[in-house]
Amino acid sequence: MPNSGPVVRSDGYELEVDRDLCVTLAVCLGLAPETFELDTEGKAVFKNPEGEDIHTLLEAAKGCPVNAIIIRNKEGKRLWPDPEVD
Ligand code: SF4
Question: How many angstroms is it from 8 CA to the middle of ligand 1?
Fold first, then answer.
């Protein structure tokens, strides 16, 4: 089973890739190469959810042209896309 999440990092942030939205453009791999890789279907999966710090992952999520990367904080509030908190 491909690991598109959700996965919870040791710092409490939760990461997920919406496989229905992901269109294989690999922007996320360019911005966070230690965290993401593409599976055999060309969808982003987590190679190592701890691979980059949360700021880098937020930039990767913002760089995804279809907003397929979802990040939540420890309280379960969505940071990206459509942030529920500042
Ligand atoms: S940038 Fe977005 S669409 Fe492209 S591979 Fe990553 S998650 Fe998928």
Answer: 19
